[in-house]
Specification:
Structural class of chain A: alpha/beta
Strand content of chain C: under 5%
Shape of chain A: globular
Strand content of chain A: 25-35%
Largest sheet of chain A: 6 strands, mixed
Number of domains of chain A: 2
Chains: A alpha/beta (about 290), B mainly alpha (about 120), C mainly alpha (about 240)
Oligomer: heterotrimer
Order of helices and strands of chain C: HEHHHEHHHHH
CATH topology of the largest domain in chain A: Rossmann fold
Largest interface: A-B, 26 and 19 residues
Helix content of chain C: over 70%
Largest sheet of chain C: 2 strands, parallel
CATH class of the largest domain in chain A: Alpha Beta
Number of helices of chain A: 11
CATH architecture of the largest domain in chain A: 3-Layer(aba) Sandwich
Radius of gyration of chain A: 22 Å
């Protein structure tokens, strides 16, 4: 259906390479997390997918057709950007009305219902929305758009805990009712970890990981205990992210969790623990 | 149903076990409906595919079955099946762990048996 | 095509408010003219009082509209994932429609004012020609040129970084200074040439407005082509 094929994408800004030969395929109807440090190239990638900027090299195709200046393909994508592109002088309800002109499946009733639930005043002008409500407004437009591909760039910026909770639940309800491709680019990895099906990790303009969350989490585990005993366990093993606290030490072992040496760990009095996505992300992108 | 996102065990497996627990406790009776994957996904904020995987585990084991157009139901004899499954795993999951912890604390076999006797009196 | 019109619809509704205010002001000024005429004229024909020149303000209005038609609208269309092609086409259609509308309203107003006070529109003043159709076509062509030029300039500014903006702003000044210099050196030949050029191109020689119309359309086409060249790969900036 709406498979996104990114082939050898490079984006240069003068001497800087924002993206370096990135290739990946985004399968339809999954929830993807796009993770990376500040300046890694996440927003650049999203901007390229949505025809906001143009690649220096490479191509992006959706459902077999190039994205570049292609209205037929673009009208199936809704992109909630971190920055606001909406006219500041317009009211929320006016923007709902106009969005329906360009996104024919936009559901104004649903948008109004969501606005009510989140406490967004649809009679307010865009310029008078707080940071949080500006995000809520844009998120609502995205949720109500009924587009095949939804892209969220930092959707919960400025949202309080209650609203963040509501957002994720609404996103999941919307997705369950009508499956679509969702890409969420965010720094809040801990929060979003369970919502995602797959993660895409960008580091310094390069793609370093694309895997189902489950697989990524199973590809490593944490071992901890007395420092010397831990070191013994770690002999012949690949590991990252050591943490010391006096005689206590923990390390993240890069090995599939099914291969963990339980007998050895028991002998050495060590404990296993699940690796957290955020911790794994931090080590991978250091 | 309780899910521990910090546990080593994959979420879908935890979900399957949590549903099993609730069946054992009688919260989900046989031939009654269990929450849909959508409801579970929204409630726990987990990906629907993950929720689906957990539910499917139980369907594969004939603990749940799907009524088309309605939802997932607890199979007849599910409670039995779960109890048997858990009994089979009891030795590995609980007894060995208990013995391991006991050896760590230098508690002898006879002391363990004495403790078990003591608990019976409660 | 229908989708392109949706873009036009949005751009056009942007104009509505400005148009109402503009014509409100025009009518207001006309009232002032009417008042002063009634106050100061002796009522006899042969009075040497003349009013006129609204055409100029309309051209300026169109030019300024051209300057303002890009940035906010472009961002809005990008938010809705509209291609630049479609945005450009939709904008041109809207701008040309507004130009036609204003040219028409101007001709109508000119003739209404004419009946009440000795008013002469710009067209009348330049070509001594009372033909309504010629007036309309000439005004229309001039408006299109004005709005296209405004849009082109704003595109240029949007595309350029700070350094280039400064350089671009200097070009007309530098050009003018150079021309003045050459004019001195050639003892007025440059000025003479420039005047001749405009007289020919604007049809002043034979009072033929259609030559001007042709020139305006050629110039518009050129400016619009350049504008498209700028828009087609315009990245979204801050």
């Amino acid at each position: 259906m709406s498979k996104i094929e990114i082939k050898s994408i490079t984006k240069d800004y003068g001497d800087t390479k924002a993206l370096d030969n990135v290739s990946l395929t985004i399968e339809p109807n999954k929830i993807y997390g796009l993770l990376g440090r500040n300046g890694a190239g996440k927003t650049t990638l999203l901007n390229l997918i949505t025809n906001k900027i143009f690649p220096t090299e490479g191509s992006i195709k959706i459902a077999g057709e190039p994205v570049l200046e292609n209205d037929k393909v673009l009208k199936n994508i809704f992109y909630m950007m971190e920055r606001n592109l909406y006219p500041e002088a317009l009211k929320v309800k006016e923007i709902f009305k106009w969005t329906k002109e360009y996104y024919l499946l936009f559901d104004i009733e649903y948008a109004n219902k969501l606005s009510d639930r989140f406490g967004l005043d649809i009679n307010k002008k865009i310029r008078s929305l707080s940071t949080g409500y500006a995000s809520i407004f844009k998120a609502i437009v995205a949720l109500a758009s009924n587009a095949d591909i939804l892209i969220y760039d930092e959707p919960v910026l400025g949202l309080d805990a209650n609203h963040r909770n509501m957002f994720y639940k609404e996103l999941l309800a919307n997705y369950s009712e009508k499956p679509k491709t969702i890409i969420i680019s965010t720094h809040l990895i801990e929060e979003v970890e369970t919502v995602l099906e797959e993660v895409i990790i960008i580091k310094e303009g390069k793609l370093i990981e694309k895997k189902p969350v489950e697989d990524l989490l199973a590809s490593a585990y944490v071992i901890s205990g007395e420092a010397s005993k831990v070191d013994e366990y770690l002999k012949d093993k690949t590991y990252i992210e050591e943490e010391h606290m006096g005689k206590y030490k923990s390390a993240t072992v890069i090995e599939n969790i099914q291969y963990k040496n339980e007998t050895l760990a028991r002998k050495l009095n060590l404990d296993f623990a699940k690796v957290e996505l955020q911790k794994l992300f931090i080590s991978l992108t250091n | 149903m309780l899910l521990d996102f910090n546990s080593e065990k994959p979420i879908y497996m935890q979900l399957a076990e949590a549903v099993e627990d609730d069946i054992l406790k009688g919260i989900f009776e046989e031939e009654t409906q269990v929450p849909s994957t959508t409801e579970i996904s929204i409630s726990f904020k987990i990906n629907p595919a993950t929720a689906g995987k957990g539910i499917n585990l139980l369907v594969d084991e004939d603990i749940l079955y799907k009524k088309r157009g309605v939802g997932m139901f607890v199979s007849k004899g599910a409670k039995e099946k779960i109890m048997q499954k858990r009994k089979d795993g009891f030795y590995n999951n609980y007894v060995l762990t208990l013995l391991e912890e006991a050896s760590k604390l230098d508690i002898s076999r006879s002391e363990i048996i004495e403790m078990i006797e003591r608990s019976k009196a409660r | 095509m229908e989708h392109t019109f949706k873009v036009s619809k949005y751009i056009f509704q942007d104009f509505k408010k400005a148009l109402i205010i503009y014509y409100g002001i025009i009518i207001g000024i006309f009232m002032l003219m009417l008042f002063s005429y009634m106050r100061f004229s002796s009522g006899q024909s042969g009075d040497d009082i003349r009013f006129g020149g609204f055409g100029v303000s309309t051209v300026i209005f169109m030019f300024v509209s051209g300057l303002n038609c890009f940035k906010v609208n472009f961002k809005f269309m990008q938010a809705n994932n509209i291609s630049r092609k479609r945005f450009y086409r939709g904008t041109i259609i809207a701008l040309i429609s507004v130009a036609a509308l204003m040219a028409f309203v101007d001709v109508v107003l000119n003739n209404v004012f004419n009946q009440i006070i000795p008013y002469e529109g710009v067209f009348e003043q330049l070509y001594r020609n009372g033909n309504y159709f010629a007036d309309f076509v000439w005004s229309f062509a001039l408006m299109v040129l004005a709005v296209s030029t405004g849009m082109f300039i704003t595109l240029l500014y949007y595309k350029c970084n700070k350094l280039m903006k400064v350089m671009i702003s200097f070009i007309p000044v530098v050009l003018f200074i150079l021309l003045a210099l050459f004019n001195n050196l050639t003892k007025g030949a440059v000025a003479y040439g420039v005047v001749n050029f405009f007289t020919a191109v604007l049809g002043f020689e034979n009072y033929n407005p259609y030559i001007a119309v042709f020139s305006f359309f050629i110039a518009s086409a050129g400016v619009l082509a350049l504008s498209y060249g700028l828009i087609r790969r315009m990245p979204i900036k801050d």
